[in-house]
Amino acid sequence: RYGSSDFLVLTYSPYADLLADSTLDSLRKLSAELLELERVESVMSILNVPLLESPPKPIQELIKNVPTLESPGIDKALAKLEFLNSPIYRDNLVSPDFKTTAVLINLNDDPLYRELLQQRNELRKKAKDGLLSELEQSELKNVLIDFKNHRDKMRLVEHKNISQVREIAEKYRGDAKIFLGGASMVADDLITFIRNDLQVFGSAVFVFLILTLWVIFRQFRWILLPVITCSFSVVTTSGFLGLFGWEVTVISSNFISIQLIITMAITIHLIVRYRELAGLNPNMDQRQLVLDSTIFMARPCTFAVLTTVVGFGSLVLSGILPVMNFGWMMSAGIGVSLFLTFLIFPVLLILMPKAMPNTSFESRFALTKIFADITERHGKTIMFLSVAALMLSIVGASKLNVENSFIDYFKESTEIYQGMKVIDQQLGGTTPLDLVVELDESVEETLPVKKDTKPEAELEDEEEFDSFEEEFEETASEAQYWFTAEKMEKIERIHDYLNGLEQTGKVLSLGTMLKIGKTLNSGKSLDNFLLALLYNELPERFRKIILDPYVSVENNEARFYVRIRDSEPNLRRNELLLQIQHDLKTKLDIPEEKVHLANLLVLYNNMLQSLFKSQILTLGVVIISFLIMFIFLFRSITIALIAIFPNVLSIGVVLGFMGWMGIPLDMMTITIAAISVGIAVDNTIHYIHRFRHEFAIDRNYIAAMHRSHESIGYAMYYTSITIIIGFSILVLSKFIPSIYFGLLTGLAMLIALMAALTLLPQLLIFLKPLGTEKQEV
Questions:
Q1: Prediction pTM value
Q2: Is residue 78 classed exposed, middle or buried when 0-12, 13-18 and 19+ CB atoms within 10 A define those classes?
Q3: Helix 528-537 vs helix 485-499: angle between axes, to the nearest 10 degrees?
Q4: Which terminus of the chain has a lower count of CB atoms within 10 Å, N or C?
């Protein structure tokens, strides 16, 4: 309706003056090269935009020959003044210091994409309402396939085009500082980041896990078996994802790394149990060792994996499609890991000769023994510190917010960050907001223009247009009667209101043209006759720039294009949108149903607001689900509550830390709570399972704790350290949310390990849920 299309932006900061001949020549050559690209429809820059005030001319003269900077005899000094003062160009095409300009690269429209997208959405809506016929079900399948194929094809075309634009821009970096921006560039770079993260981090985590296994076990078999198990799990899961058409997104880009880590954790538990049995029973044959270790670990590993699946599965309740898909992907992947680990590991191990364990690592780094001694001697202190940490975490978590700047998702070294920063701070803001207002029908629209009722002075000012009236009336449509004084006043009031908001950058609308028209009309507002003249007679290439994007005469609408400064520290998106809706209704008397807010700011804000609600929902579901599973597993409400507390503490500390440090919730950090508690709870299950086994030997809580620490404690220690360092590798990503995800998940696992080796045994000793101890005679 408003002729908007996809575009790229080059920010161009020349080392010479912006209007110097050398700068204009470089811009001319740059534009010419860009226009030769297949995807580029047009290029707009200071060279070819209309100059309406250089110098000011009567409107009927201006529309006959609208000058540009390339026009013969143009006065550069006047042009500079217009660029700096024009409500169209200042903070939009040029920066206020006149050192940076924007080169707008308009891309060819893709009508097939829009058509397929519309068909897909309409059929999906019918399917959701249960109204699809059999024919339409078949049509939906075909449309989904066609849409995906076309989108994938266009992604390659877009990537090629963006690469070509960058290659062209590179040639001119000797003349200016150049950055590339635009929504399609951000989307393309995000896909590139995802692809790199999949390759780099999947490989990096794999190499790291091999090194970790060697450091801990010092035996080749304990490297080979986990590598085979992990490889089979990842390849199988990837095959399923491809088979069912689940695509990897920004959210799920780390699924390979996470699955490797979780599969390795299951395998380490089996290895540690086998080594323990081999050390205690040197005469037991290989077959019996493998059988006993596998059977003993089957129950706790199964429940541990089920709790992890619940953790990931809770993401399905988030209501955010990429997060939901990530939950499904990981739930399926972990199920595959459990099945294949218990299938492949014992089968391959039983074919190998028996080997006595190398315990050099345990003897040098007896961390679990240290934690056991601390728990025995300082139990009350541990509980006091845990309660204090939980209270601080609750206060910190109350400070959590979802307001974050999109620009802060990227490292300062990336072109996305640098380009967005220039656009945000010097060229009017980055995040677009569309405000479309349905205007009221006015009586003037149905009446002809009565020029003879105007004051004499005004008639004299318009005498110069008399010769054009007859011709104009023949060509003018309803536009002549649409541009009424009442509507123009309302549009100007809305424009001025939006422009006055602290958070807004550049505001463009018909109100912008009204302000320029006032300058052209000797300081007097344009009447409906002059506005209709402009609307109908202005050359099309200029009308597309200054009129068409902001008014729809046919639909009786006015559009206000607002750019928000994303890096504004006081920006509160939801409050801003609510304020605009409230003020338009109360201050400007525009009914709520006639105001429509759209574009990226609304989409981004809706996503952020749903994050906060889903965080509470997913955490609540996870904790309640775990409590029910613990009651079923341990057959004791007391033990179930004991098992929950250390895990609540670990995620509480992480959320509290985020709140205290001002780290906001975003697409990635929302998943930390559910994922971390899902993985961390494994330690609790394994420890309580082993503690009950040890307690049954002599019914002594302290002795059972020491034996548990020196058996399953090692497996918990190894798996947790593996997970912590594995997630920490994500710090190498260029995508800041991935870095936060890795570091905060690592922190959650560290707290969970410490709680499982100190707080958990202390609660078992203090509350004695397994019954009274055996009295020594």
A1: 0.77
A2: middle
A3: 80
A4: C
Of residues 311 and 691, more confidently modeled: 691
Identity of the amino acid at 733: S
> Is residue 738 within 8 Å of residue 730, measured between CB atoms?
yes
Q: How far apart are CA 611 and CA 521, in angstroms?
A: 51
- 279 by Cβ neighbours in 10 Å (0-12 / 13-18 / 19+) ranks as exposed
Each residue's pLDDT tens digit, 501-515: 988 889 998 888 888
Residue type present at position 398: S
Q: One-letter amino acid identity for 382?
A: I
140-173 burial code (b ≥16 CB/10 A, e <16): beebbeebeebeeebeeebbebbebbeebbeebe
Contact yes or no for 437/598 (Cβ under 8 A): no
In angstroms, the CA 514 to CA 560 distance is 13
pLDDT in tens, 148-175: 889 888 888 998 999 999 999 999 999 9
**And the tokens for 484?**
């009424």
Tokens of 411: 């490292």
For residues 342-359, b (16+ Cβ closer than 10 Å) or e, as one string? bebbbeebeeeeeeebee
531 vs 538: CA distance, rounded Å: 10
Which pairing describes strands 595-598 and 431-438: parallel, antiparallel, or unpaired? antiparallel
Structural domains present in the chain:
7-49+93-118+156-181 (3.30.70.100), 197-398+605-767 (1.20.1640.10), 431-564+572-595 (no CATH)
Residue 546 Cα distances to 348, 559, 652, angstroms: 72, 12, 53
* Polymer length in residues for the chain: 777
Q: Residues near 495 by Cβ (< 8 Å), separated by ≥ 6?
A: 507, 509, 510, 511, 512, 514, 560
DSSP state of 526: P
- Judged by DSSP in three states, 63 sits in coil
